[in-house]
Amino acid sequence: MKPNILVTGGAGYIGSVTVERLLEAGYGVVILDDLSKGHKSAIPDGCRFVEGNIGDTKLVEEALRKNSIDSVIHFAAMSLVGESMERSGDYYSNNVVAGIRLLEAMDATGVRKIVFSSSAGVYGEPETIPISETNRTEPVNVYGDTKLIFERVLSWQSERTALGHISLRYFNAAGASERYGEDHRPESHLIPIALQAAAGKRPELTVFGGDYETPDGTCIRDYIDVRDLADAHIAALAALDAGRSGVYNLGNGEGWSVLNVIEFAEEVTGLTIPRKMGARRAGDPARLVASSSLAESELGWTPRHPELRDMIEAAWKWLKNYPDGYPD
Ligand code: UFG
Fold it and tell me: Which of 236, 272, 294, 319 could cysteine-pair with 166, CB 3.0–4.6 Å?
């Protein structure tokens, strides 16, 4: 019997797919989610659900104690680059201050292992591509800054409390499992927007900037299948058990421009995606491509779905099954 894991933000996009994998792997799962972004119907049968915020120390302590939690996987956060530039205070309070409350509750209840959802956003404009974990970290948006600060909080906390901590720096999550997919409200991510535009659910897609220093002038990202991200969390739990702490990039090592993504989405759907060229979005680095060799060598993780076309296909299938997203 595998131990019990508290998953904060387990009703969100990456959280729900990870919970599904944890249950398949035999872990006991307790989801803590305030449903500010997550969906009740993204919570699988077979796990416990506590509705609340990570900053509510009393509630979190009770959830940790009552359920004999062994480790925490911490997804709950505000995670939109554009929004973070408008609402910086909310990002620091939710992603940093409330996160510290979560660590306090863990400390008080003797829970000493955490997997943290960090982000490629910690690097800012990278010095070299592909980006390795030793690259300079100079975020160019508030979201990335909150993730970098919390990585440091974890590191300092571990000095005092022997906390085992693994920060996973996700590049761009994409795709879906059969049952769980991407449903942000409002949606701001490129792939679901492209697919919604293909399906006629929105009039068009705006390309945010065509004057970047990239071959076609649009931003380049490294897309990683959400099911592969879920696998990485399982690998991280095993690494924590083996006494490892650290920071790992999770990507495919391949960069695709905004226009490439639109082309793939047109191929997958067989539909035309109406688009217009717009201004740059604040806080967007030109190019983010990962080296994930450290995760491969130290966590034993290898992406099983490295093809962008497969991710878009999975997202398209999910959209067709859930044309209006989750029912709640
Ligand atoms: N984009 C458009 N039009 C849109 C939406 C997005 O042109 O309507 C562009 C963006 O400007 C960016 C690219 O598509 O260049 C990808 O944008 P997303 O919003 O899909 O994703 P981001 O790269 O902004 O951010 C995502 C996650 C972050 C994470 C980051 C890591 O939301 O949490 O990937 O690379 F930090």
Answer: 236
